[in-house]
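An example makes the point: we let one protein speak, the chain in one-letter code, the fold tokenised, and here it is:
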Amino acid sequence: MSPEPWPQDEDGNTPLDDDESEGLIPGHLVRRSELNAWEAENIREAIRWAETRRPDMLDLRGLRGLHQRMFGRTWTWAGTFRTRDKNVGPYPWYEVPRLVHDLLENTKAQYPQAKPVPAELDALAARFHHQLVLIHPWPNGNGRHARLATDLLLERWGRPPFGWGARADGGGTATARGEYLHALRAADAGSYDALYRFVRS
């Protein structure tokens, strides 16, 4: 499982500004490259925890607990829904609890009960991922959390984790990130075909 196959910024030497530092636990971090490295280690610990605990991503406690595990050593607000509006996503902060609840319940309801076909499960997981990113429930870390949560959901359903573009270009490049964002924008407009292709690439 790899919740962050793409770099978060291209200029690792850029100092953190006051907004970026708000809620930051390790006070010695001053540059984005340092923050990225610290977060990456925190996330690796969360992956090890998830591999043994197998949290349920269609349960709110599991979903929040995963975010807490991924960022709990980095941010004071880890595992807490955002309380401000962001310039990404269409939903105001006060709608987040209802939207997350509805997403979890709708995903449960759409799970095919009789002999689920692998392609159907993959499509349902991709839609779950897109909606979770669109809701943007956390102050930060939404994409990384949503990718890992989706892989854990697939695992619970007996499916392998998504490739997230890693096989398309070796992973970790701007190409994969660009294709991912393009697929999400297409899904925003109601077309999921590009996302279905990308997640298994």
The two ends are 15 Å apart (CA to CA).
